[in-house]
Amino acid sequence: MAMTTEQSVWFADTFDKLVGNVGRAVLGKDDVIRLSLTCMLTRGHLLLEDAPGTGKTSLARAIAATVQGSHQRIQFTPDLLPSDVTGVTIYDQASHKFEFHRGPIFASIVLADEINRASPKTQSALLEVMEEGQVTVDGVTHEAPKPFMVIATQNPIEQAGTYRLPEAQLDRFLVKSSIGYPDHASTVRILAGASDRDPARSLAPIITSQAVIDMADLAATVHVDDAVLEYVSALAERTRTAPEARLGVSVRGALALVRTAKVWAATQGRHYVVPDDIKDLVEPVWNHRIVLDAEAEFEGTTALDLLGRALAEVPAPQERRNVA
Predict the structure, then answer these.
(1) d(CA 173, CA 151)
(2) 27-34: long-range pairs with CB below 8 Å, 24+
(3) How far apart are CA 4 and CA 79, in angstroms?
(4) Backbone angles phi, psi at 68, to 5 degrees
(5) Is this prediction's pTM over 0.90?
(6) pLDDT for 2-26, tens place per residue?
(7) Which residues make Cβ contacts (< 8 Å) with residue 298, sequence separation at least 6?
(8) CB atoms within 10 A of CB 151
(9) Highest mean pLDDT (candidates 71-75, 184-188, 227-231)
(10) How many CB atoms lie within 10 A of CB 251?
(11) Both ends of the chain: CA-CA distance in Å?
């Protein structure tokens, strides 16, 4: 059953309250907060890549504090093992049975801090749980809680002692974004509250885990016209045929954009997707999924350049058909 106008209004109002709560800890970054919460309600995972000290960890902690559910923080280091993330099976001498001890990945919101500092072996431990919501240890499958979201951070400036995330790992992240430095007024407010080292700690949860699931289910019913679907498909095809691209946007990437656009439309009080929703989300949803040709990259071409050209060359639908 499609979302109604009344439901879309309620959705947008609830979403604004979530943004306001997180915004108490991350000042002056409403756009990034809206994108991050949209990622959560799309049942996706978020990769925050930015310089040190811009509030990546604070944003992740604020989102976790806003949701009344479990959350864990994993500090990724070169010596971190896969079992430190997923858990381990230990033999209990008293019961003469093997018991599974859950790792920190079994939480509703998981902060993977500096994910690119762990070895590829440890990074790959996240592949199954991020894609399928389950962890398999010693042949036994364990379900992750619902909702489940990984918020990973990485510093692109410092490369010493880091391991670049492979394309398969990057593709598991629904959205890649950066926070950037706050404006002058927000910086002054942050400095005025310098005595509070962890603003996210004072945040009270305003939504339950079940409510997050309900909102995600409701957003999935947002209407997407065939013309918009054709537009997304044409954009994806353009990224694959571009001479600068070694790897374009996959079908998974196209699906990710449509699902995210549904939530994005609902956050603005609409029960249908418009082409502008697609244009707003192309960069954060597709930017990290494109692999450029080495020669094009050497010449200074970026994935953003390629996406900008695709948006300019592919005509968007001009009018929306009637929505039931």
Answers:
(1) 9
(2) 27/182, 27/186, 27/189, 27/190, 28/182, 28/183, 28/185, 28/186, 28/189, 29/55, 29/59, 29/179, 29/180, 29/182, 29/186, 32/59, 32/177, 32/178, 32/179, 32/180, 33/59, 34/267
(3) 51
(4) -80, 75
(5) no
(6) 888 899 999 999 999 999 999 988 8
(7) none
(8) 27
(9) 227-231
(10) 9
(11) 10
Tokens 């604004």 belong to residue: 16
Q: Which two tokens stand for residue 264?
A: 């994005």
Q: What is the mean pLDDT of residues 54-78?
A: 85
Q: Which is the CATH superfamily of the domain at 222-315?
A: Magnesium chelatase subunit I, C-Terminal domain (1.10.8.80)
In single-letter form, the type of residue at position 134 comes to Q
Q: How far apart are CA 51 and CA 182, in angstroms?
A: 13
> 256: helix, coil or strand?
helix
Do β-strands 109-113 and 149-154 pair in parallel, antiparallel, or remain unpaired? parallel
User: What amino acid occupies position 218?
Assistant: L
CA atoms within 13 Å, Cβ hemisphere of 278: 28
Res 161: pLDDT: 65
DSSP-based three-state secondary structure for 236: helix
5 Cβ contact list (under 8 Å, min separation 6): 271
At residue 254's C-alpha, the angle toward residues 317 and 240, to 5°, is 90
CA geometry: angle at 209 spanning 83 and 39, to 5°? 75
Instruction: Note whether 102 and 82 are within 8 A (CB).
Output: no
With residues binned 3-state (H G I as helix, E B as strand, rest as coil), the percentages for the chain, rounded to 5, are 50, 15, 35
Contact call for residues 85 and 122 (beta carbons, < 8 A): yes
